[in-house]
Write a structure and sequence with these properties.
2 copies of one chain form a homodimer. Chain A is of the alpha/beta class. The first copy, chain A, has helices at residues 5-14, 22-34, 37-53, 88-95, 124-133, 147-160, 186-194, and strands at 54-56, 63-65, 78-85, 102-106, 138-141, 167-170. Chain A folds into 2 domains: 5-56, RecR Domain 1 (Helicase, Ruva Protein, domain 3); 63-170, Dna Topoisomerase Vi A Subunit, Chain: A, domain 2 (3-Layer(aba) Sandwich). In chain A, strands 4-3-5-6 form a 4-stranded parallel sheet. A two-stranded antiparallel sheet of chain A has the order 1-2.
């Protein structure tokens, strides 16, 4: 007897999820056999809901539920400030800071010459249009502190540099809080030195 | 803005699967957002099929599809031989050997004093009934070579010992093929020595 078809089918279907290999897929398939049917139904409903209710906001590029973007519809936000990030997860991370109550623009990726991702592959055209059609005073380029993130920030700042009265900024570089100085890499340390704050002058 | 409810719900539903932690659940939830809808539907259908079409055979305790046990209904098998295993996966492993064409009994677990699993928690009563109602010549106890597997095999052999003309056997112990002798643990090595085969006498 070969493995039962239903088990083989589920194992194959699970392998479609990036990051789930052969062994994990098999293990999860067996767990499903034993799982409480209500929990399985609840999982299926959650998967269906994410495909049905979630979409990408045509304004900011972030995820929204039921075609309503919680951020773009929030009139209490500071409409002079736009924060540019590469993913929805970055929005959630920055929203944990109560100090920032800005609007966002989610690029859904970074320019990456090594991966062949160009400016037209990510949400940059809409960003430029949005900046031209609104009256932001400052654009914070909060892309990742990686080569791709830097390239993306540089590219956007080049396009925007001729717009008068628009401040373009980048998140500060330096030591992460809670780290040990002797564990910091040279690049971080040199940025921390350049970006030092003056206590007394 | 907090994380969107649909994403949080899917993350929580995925965490119900044993072995999937917080970070994995979150990662998989985000993968679902990006996944091709047909692939998601195919995965959901496979999960639903495994809950609907798969059940446990009331005779052998293995999994069966659509209430038909491929093994118990197979009249070409040797009806004098019953192999006792702890899981369906063991059946699949043994079925890869073309040499064995026996019937199986799946215990769905091992007796485990350390985990509080007793003989009545696993599929042993039906095994005893089955042996009494049939005319097997040999019972191969193919439980795992672990303390729990040994305990289970010993328990079953004790119950069956008074049935006359019934051979009760256990899989051989020794060196796994392809291993290096100097990497074998002492217990395995001592079993390999005891179970040696004579080339010439």
């Amino acid at each position: 007897m070969k493995e039962l078809q239903t088990i083989a089918n589920l194992t194959n279907a699970l392998k479609v999820i990036p990051g789930i290999g052969n062994k994990s897929a098999e293990r999860i398939a067996y767990e499903f056999i034993k799982m409480n049917p209500e929990k399985v139904d609840s999982l299926i409903n959650s998967i269906q809901a994410i495909k049905k209710d979630l979409s990408i906001c045509p304004i900011c590029g972030s995820y929204m539920e039921n075609n309503k973007c919680q951020i773009c519809l929030d009139s209490t936000r500071d409409d002079s400030l736009l924060v540019v990030v590469t993913s929805y997860k970055d929005v959630i991370a920055l929203e944990r800071l109560s100090s920032l109550h800005a609007f966002y623009h989610v690029l859904n990726g970074s320019i990456s010459p090594s991966k062949g991702i160009t400016a037209s592959d990510i949400n940059i055209n809409k960003l430029i249009q949005r900046i031209k059609n609104n009256h932001f005073k400052e654009i914070i380029l909060a892309t990742d502190p990686t080569i791709d993130g830097e390239t993306t920030a540089l590219y956007i700042s080049e396009i925007l540099k001729d717009i008068s009265d628009l401040i373009i900024s980048r998140l500060g570089y330096g030591l992460p809080m809670g780290a040990n100085l002797d564990f910091a890499d040279e690049l971080t340390l040199s940025h921390a030195l350049k970006g030092r704050t003056i206590y007394k002058k």
